[in-house]
Amino acid sequence: MDALPFLTAVYAGQPVWLWLAFLSFIGFLLWLDLGVINNKDGVVSASKSAKMWAAFASLAVAFGAYVYFVYEPDPRYYNSPDNLNQQAVIQYFTGYLLETALAFDNIFVIGMIFTFFAVPREYQHRVLFWGIIGAIVFRAIFIGLGSAVVNEFTWVLYIFAAFLIFTGWKMLFGGDHEMKLEDNPVLKFVKKRMRVTETIENHNFFVKKPHPDGSGRLVLWATPLFLALMMVELVDIIFAVDSVPAIFAVTRDPFIVYTSNIFAILGLRSMYFMLAEAVERFKYLKYGLSLVLVLIGFKIIWNFGLSKELKMVPYMEPHWSLIATLVLLGGAIGYSLWKTRHEGVKPAE
Predict the structure, then answer these.
(1) What is the model's pTM?
(2) What is the rounded radius of gyration, in angstroms, for the C-alpha atoms of the chain?
(3) Is 5 left (phi over 0), alpha (psi -120 to 50) or beta?
(4) pLDDT per residue over 264-290, tens digit each?
(5) Where are the alpha helices (DSSP H) in the chain?
(6) Where are the domains of the chain?
């Protein structure tokens, strides 16, 4: 009985029990992933990866049905008190599509990380699995902070708008910049202050080996697999700088923000082993994504500045964002596949 007041307490617009139920469900999915389906080291085939993605995508759609029929949105986070569930489900799917597209760049960078550290394919799923654990924690922190700031100081959305427009413009015209891992300051810092083995030791992130002073006593060493995991987490944090402002531009409901983020991360990480081999076929996706970011940035200015404050234009309803996102991303993907239809897929390393 003592736990009931805590479970029914409201956090970020929803009762604590709902947050715990969602996290427990995600924990169950991760246990099912590593503890049952992929409990042994091995290469995840493209077909198995596709099936895993289809399962996660189906769950994301099913959760959208929950949002529409069962979820009780907090009116504070919505423009109108009418049709709250309809607004919530549109914002959820818009956020899910946007986060999936934003996370797509992770695949290319993660592939670079695995190549740099010479991570065998049979251990890559283990790194991605623990990377998801970190992403769940870090996204919760970023979204919690972002929600507190946005709902206390609404004008921060204008800063988000300017950032999204700038990011989209830079993606559109800034060119490609290759990530140089050997020059990464975080990696240099860690390697100077930790004992790191020269080679990967099975699937272990840490191993016990003799101290380098020759005393013979066993001490803990990090392996290159741990450094790869650390860099995957760092990349996710860097990409969150783009994705968190983008999703708050779509919806201010923290529960919708977080759930759409997590389902997108789960789905895309499960698709890594299939998309990593064909990532070059989606080379024009970034142009569609850049236009989506610019559009969302202008939507903030339109809705909160020109519509709410100046009363100059009508409010842009959420479904228009969803339609625009679908058209731009779908068009960019279709154009990419058409333009690269004669290009061969790189063989798996």
Answers:
(1) 0.86
(2) 22
(3) alpha
(4) 988 887 788 877 767 777 888 889 989
(5) 4-8, 16-31, 46-69, 84-116, 121-152, 156-173, 185-193, 224-250, 254-270, 272-275, 285-300, 318-339
(6) 4-339
